Amino acid sequence: MTDTLVKQQNPVKVSMRNITLSFGGITALKDVSVDIRENEILAIIGPNGAGKTCLLNCLNGFYKPQKGEIIFEGRDIRGIRPDKAAKMGLARTFQNIELFSGLTTLENAMAARHVFMKQNLLTGGLYFGPAHNEEIKHRRVVEDIIDFLEIEAVRHHVVASLPYGMRKRIEFARALALEPKVLLLDEPMAGMNSEEKEDIARFIVDIFEGQGECYPDTPVLRDGLNTIVLIEHDMGVVMDLADRIVVLDFGRKIAEGTPEEIRNNPQVISAYLGQSAKH
Ligand SMILES: Nc1ncnc2c1ncn2[C@@H]1O[C@H](COP(=O)(O)OP(=O)(O)OP(=O)(O)O)[C@@H](O)[C@H]1O
């Protein structure tokens, strides 16, 4: 059996069925169905305005599609609150960085851990005792993630003072700090130079594969994260990283397949690759 066939038979982790999303007269997504499978990096591509970000926004509850269903862990999560989606294991980064710019790298990553914290504001105010112990545990996970993403040098820097590429990396750290089951990356390399892109590509592969006993106390790094969805415009990166690709155009799914299939699909070439070839 070929590798492709094996991939196609991987269990479905999230199933988006017949998603339609409109804003007034604009139909951003029209009857789009996408299965996100275990053990795959799934790339979503398409020209500007094709509906890629909208699809992620539906997945993590930012937008509630008018039609369709999103099945995750046996239930329809269409229209779930974003914090609930994060708690269930759907974490994402944003095309336009959405960090707390007045906080440090460490504080931004720790903020993500509040999803898991049992202590409330009152007990949290009593620094000693359970809240303190809990903080130590979460801090260890966050420090591992900071180490993994090689951002130790800016742990205590306020995010607003950092260059763009570094802020993108911190957003990645914050998403990992949620220890997700499915990681949604919206243009994690946008605006980066080729060296920075290579670093991010390496992190994606490493997180997908897992780092074993290098990080024994942080399961997301130790065991890896076997379901990653990636929106990316750089075709070289997409072809290198993705196991499968879904192509959107004007809010519709026009193709789905392996990088090889997509590369040779005439509809995709005219809709997307053709367009970029003109530039
Ligand atoms: N909140 C909104 N209100 C109105 N229209 C919206 C909203 N969000 C998205 N749209 C529209 O939906 C369509 C799809 O947008 P989306 O951001 O998903 O595209 P995209 O494929 O991610 O594009 P890009 O590659 O440029 O980021 C566009 O026409 C966009 O203007």
Overview of the molecule:
The protein is an alpha/beta fold. It has helices spanning about 5-10, 50-60, 80-90, 105-115, 120-125, 130-150, 165-175, 195-210, 220, 235-240, 260-265, 265-279, and strands at about 10-25, 25-35, 40-45, 65-70, 75, 90, 180-185, 225-230, 245-250, 250-255. A hairpin with a 2-residue loop joins β4 and β5 (about 75). The protein binds adenosine-5'-triphosphate. Adenosine-5'-triphosphate (ATP) binds near residues 28, 46, 48, 50 and 54.
The small molecules bound here are: adenosine-5'-triphosphate
Q: Write the element-wise H/E pattern from the N-terminal end onward.
A: HEEEHEEHEHHHHEHHEHEEHH
Main β-sheet, spatial strand arrangement = 6-7-8-3-9-10
DSSP E strands, number:
10
Radius of gyration: 19 Å
Taking the sheet with the most strands, its summary is: 6 strands, mixed
Q: Which residues form runs of ≥5 with pLDDT under 50?
A: none
Share of residues in helices: 40-55%
How much strand content do the residues show?
Answer: 15-25%
Mean pLDDT: 88
Number of helices: 12
How far is the first residue's CA from the last residue's CA?
A: 40 Å
InterPro entries: AAA+_ATPase, ABC_AA/LPS_Transport, ABC_transporter-like_ATP-bd, BCA_ABC_TP_C, P-loop_NTPase
Keywords: ATP-binding, Nucleotide-binding, Transport
Protein name: ABC transporter ATP-binding protein
GO molecular function, one term: ATP binding
Could you give the topology of this structure?
Elements: H1 3-8, E1 12-23, E2 26-37, E3 40-45, H2 52-59, E4 67-72, E5 75-76, H3 82-88, E6 90-92, H4 105-113, H5 121-125, H6 130-148, H7 164-177, E7 182-186, H8 194-209, H9 219-222, E8 227-231, H10 235-241, E9 244-249, E10 252-257, H11 259-263, H12 266-278
Parallel strand pairs: 3-8, 3-9, 6-7, 7-8
Antiparallel strand pairs: 1-2, 1-4, 4-5, 9-10
The site of adenosine-5'-triphosphate (ATP) has 12 residues, from strand 2 and helix 2.
